[in-house]
Amino acid sequence: MSYLYLNKTFTKSNIQHYLLARFARVLPLYFVVVLSAYFLTLSGNDSLYSIPDFNSLLGHLLLVYGESVFWSIPAEIQFYFIFLIFWFFAKQRSGYIYAFIVGVMVLLFLTNFPRWYGEVYEIPYNFFNVLRSLPYFFVGVIFGMHYHSFKVPGYLRKHGFILVLGLIPLMYPEFSFVSSDAKRRMWLSYEVLFVMSTVFFCIVFLVPNNNIVLVNKLGDFLGKISYSLYLLHMPIIVKVNQFTLSVEMKLLVSLVLSICAAYVSYRYFEKPLAIRIRKSINRPKGNMAS
Predict the structure, then answer these.
(1) pLDDT attached to residue 278
(2) What is the pLDDT at residue 287?
(3) Spatial separation of the C-alpha atoms in residues 124 and 139, rounded to whole Å
(4) Which of 17, 147, 225, 269 could form a disulfide with 262 if both were Cys (CB 3.0 to 4.6 A apart)?
């Protein structure tokens, strides 16, 4: 988002365009899946996701609570509003962005990432998800701010830096040889944040743009369907896991079915809706009135 928007003027029309584009990308499919899961659960079928009552449904629709993979969607929407603060200061007072980020990260550390969750009028909420994710969001904002201006020496632009992706599996407790508290706290650990930020920096700034691992048609295809893939893959995995198959075959079947379901969702729902919304954004006001 910082790559796309921080160089633009902070005006009412640009803000409206930004919010509409962001929400249109995330919310339609999210609401469809949430409502489908709710009505399926009421009918005694929780094969999609379990949303057992109306209060739980409200928590999802109000974007303050998320079951299973839904946890990240409220956090993402909340990031969209936090980003407006950075955008406001980007042109003339960019130093406030760094001060804000450092201040919040120190506060999160000193308070041990406070667990803000519970119920209000029996409607569940969980703001711990956005708090534990904020440092990673901040890193992305800073990298995006400097993507155009940061000049990497030619001798550092090497395809070999793609190997840093191998560090990601080593962050998981089952594979990590780290014996410190970072192994147990995982995404609440600034040590993990440092490693993941290093991986991200190498991929974005040091790996050449024509790297075959990152630039290919398969990657483009998976990128297009990635949101549907994220929302739909978990029920498929749960269902396939009930079959009497080897672990390797379960993985393959789950992957194939998830990609197929994601493609259908993207092709017949996400893409047509995105085209309509994009046209409505770019349509002149005179035509809209007519």
Answers:
(1) 74
(2) 54
(3) 29
(4) 225
How many other C-beta atoms lie within 10 A of the C-beta of residue 5? 21
Q: Which of 127, 111, 41 is nearest to 79 (CA)?
A: 127
Q: Which of 184, 232, 220 is nearest to 47 (CA)?
A: 232
What is the enclosing helix (H) or strand (E) of 232?
helix 226-240
CA 117 to chain centre: 20
DSSP for 7-27?
TS---HHHHHHHHHHHHHHHH
Tokens at 146, concatenated:
């400097």
Two tokens, residue 271 = 């893409």
Reported as a single tens digit per residue, the pLDDT across 162-175 is 999 999 888 887 78
Give the single-character DSSP code of 243. S
273/287 Cα distance (integer angstroms): 20
Rounded Cα distance between 256 and 252, Å, is 6
Contacts by 17-22, CB closer than 8 A, 24 or more apart: 17/281, 18/87, 19/80, 20/277, 20/281, 21/277, 21/278, 21/281, 22/80
3-state secondary structure (DSSP) of residue 130: helix
The amino acid occupying position 223 is G
Averaged pLDDT for residues 78-91: 92
Widest pairwise Cα distance in the chain = 66
Mind listing the pLDDT tens digit for each residue in 182-195?
Answer: 667 777 888 889 99
141-159 tens-digit pLDDT: 999 999 988 889 989 999 9
pTM given for the model: 0.87
Q: Is 120 helix (H, G, I), strand (E, B) or coil?
A: strand
pLDDT(251) > 90? yes
